[in-house]
Amino acid sequence: MVWNGMQTARLNADVEDGLYDGRLGELLQNDRVLFRLEALDGIARERVNSLRRADPDADVDEIEVYLAYQAQLRDALELRHNAPDMRFMNVSQVTEADVARAEASARDGKRRNFGTI
Description:
Blueprint lengths: L1 H15 L7 H31 L7 H11 L23 H19 L3
Helix pairs in contact: 2-3, 2-4
């Protein structure tokens, strides 16, 4: 997760330094990635809360839940600057159905906020 955060910070610094001046298409693609990551953070937070409500005594590893969404949707949502995999997917308690809903939600949110640009 730290690595992913560092990659996002690097991307922001590149924008501030003008590395994307005159490259609107690439800048918009990177903005989409950041938007999708933010959407996945909210979805992961909701999943963690749901797991804790279902079983207050359960050992829910928040970091694994967050990483599960990012790793599972890396290719589908073009999150290319994220780590490509994770070791303890089974610990996350994120199901294939959870991932499918998250992908649909992130894509729907992108359409609402970015349109056809």
